[in-house]
Amino acid sequence: MSGNKQLEGIADNGKAMLEEYEDLLVRRDQLYKEAASYMVTYTKEFGDMITENFQLKVECIKKKKTISYCRRRMNRGLPIDTERMEIEIDEEMTLYYTQLDDLLRETEQAKNAETIGQFRYNRAKKIYRRLAKQLHPDINGRTMENEELKELWNRITAAYRISNVDELEDLEVLVRKTMEELGESGFDLDLSNIEERIERVERQINDILLTEPYTYGEILSDEKKKESLRERLREEHDDFERYLESLNSTLNEMLNQEGVKIVWKMN
Questions:
Q1: How far apart, in Å, are the Cα atoms of 83 and each of 72, 73, 76, 89?
Q2: CA nearest to 172, candidates 187, 152, 186
Q3: Tens-digit pLDDT profile for residues 88-116
């Protein structure tokens, strides 16, 4: 094989690897988007049940902490100061309260989220694929260096997340115009570590496919699996209710013991 033929072969191989890399980047971003969509749908379907169960869990944790506080005071022969107890326990419960607030907010947001039509979703995906091959920071190193390109890319990713086709169509025109003005119609790529990049993105794709929220898609597409999950959540709810009832009984028995002094501070 002549030297020219060898160079052409190397060039063709580099082009093929670049195309593979571009396709993998677009697929990865598409999977991220699908995962976000699954999360919204999953929360719409099961958010109320999950939140209600977590509320019961928080009540159980707080009740356990109350029992522990009362037992410590009783063992030391000290009165149970209800106001102090509430302050201390609420401080310990801050993280759980924050998680509960987050769940409530996410469930409400999911209920209000619009369902994107398949046509608009497919159209957005096609436009994003074209734009990603030009501006994706992992492909075009100048995207993060140039403020105009960086702003355009941020707008592209924001529009793609909500499948805003109109915005993406407008952005495609702006990208073409901006790149022509910047002389960016052709840009140099460093392909020296292309194989490593491909392997990295392949690992990321595999991680997405095997973890939540992408795995919710399997549940959402199967009515039997959805009903099975509902049943598990109902059982979990009943378990928490029984446990909370048991904790209440334990606390009442403790406080009804002779000699227990309780300090109530009235407003």
A1: 16, 14, 18, 10
A2: 152
A3: 999 999 999 999 999 999 999 888 876 66
Tell me which H or E stretch contains 90.
helix 82-92
In 20-44, which positions are buried (b, 16+ CB within 10 angstroms) versus exposed (e)?
ebbebbbbbbbbbbbbebbbbbbbb
CA neighbor of 172 nearest in space, from 139, 120, 124:
124
How far is it, in rounded angstroms, from Cα 103 to Cα 43?
Answer: 9
Domain residue spans of the chain = 24-185+212-263
Q: List, in sequence order, every beta strand (DSSP E) within the chain.
A: 80-81, 262-263
Cβ proximity of 22 and 197 under 8 Å:
no
∠ CA 100-102-105 to the nearest 5 degrees?
Answer: 110
The mean pLDDT of 143-148, rounded to a whole number, is 88
According to the 3-state scheme, what is the secondary structure of 107-171? HHHHHHCCCCCHHHHHHHHHHHHHHHHHHCCCCCCCCCCCHHHHHHHHHHHHHHHCCCHHHHHHH
Tell me the pairing of strands 80-81 and 262-263. parallel
Q: Strand, helix or coil at 188?
A: coil
Write the CA distances from 214 to 76, 196, 259, integer angstroms.
Answer: 52, 25, 57
* Residue 22 CB contacts under 8 Å (≥ 6 apart), including other chains: 132, 133, 136, 139
Whether the pLDDT of residue 31 is over 50: the answer is yes
- The model's pLDDT over 62-90, given as tens digits with 9 standing for 90+, comes to 999 999 999 999 999 889 988 999 999 99
